[in-house]
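Researcher: Here's a chain I'd like modeled. Treat it as a single chain, no partners, no ligands.
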Amino acid sequence: FKRLGIEVVATTDAGFDSAKQMSDIETVMAKSPSIILALPLDPTTSAQAFKSAVDAGVKIVLLSNVPSGYVQGKDYVGIVTDDLFQMGKQAADALAESIGGKGKVAWIFHDAQYYVTNQRDNAFKQTIENDYPDIEIVAEAGIADPARAEEIANALITKNPDLDGIYVTWAAEGVLAALRAAGNTTTRIVALDLSEPLALDMVNDGNVVALTADKAYELGRTMATVGAYGLIDKPAPAFSVAPAITVTKENVADGWKQSLNRE
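Model: Modeled as a single isolated chain. Structure tokens:
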């Protein structure tokens, strides 16, 4: 936006609370923005939340989700997302490689109806089941509240002490803590999204073997560009996808730069 000469007049964070998002939009509309970039939290609630902005002619750029009934080119300029399937697939490939293509693994998924995480989680499971016949998913558990990740992992590890690997949708720090508390140094973890504690464990040859991430900076750059297209009435792609990357001990510095554009 700075490069394009566009001023950012407000930044909000709804904390995944749909009511807070609606309130944020009402507050922001008082500043008469030309563009709004947003992650709609719930298709039904978001359709109502963004209505005032749509009616006012604000150029809306969406991240990953589309409010119910919204039409591209009329209600919003375009949608930008990460390659959700590739994130899950790359996590599966990385975990499989770390355990030699065979063994028992656990699948810890996001226990909520949420398109982004559901797509990523299911891609992992589908890849293991289709591509790795010698790897068996022997345990499954859902996480809705990240604060309960360690508790959920403790129960899973107690029932399955001989796991070769664990896939964690997010909140993997709790799963790592559970393995450490159990004195388990052999079960491998792959997780989604970058995390400094997980990366530190990875470079120190701990349980974590890979993190798959989106190119978050590229997502933002693309959203800003799509918003600018809207301002000059230039047709934007209906759907833009930012690539996924796998970050390991070997490429952690480069991966951080690729994903977040920071050292």
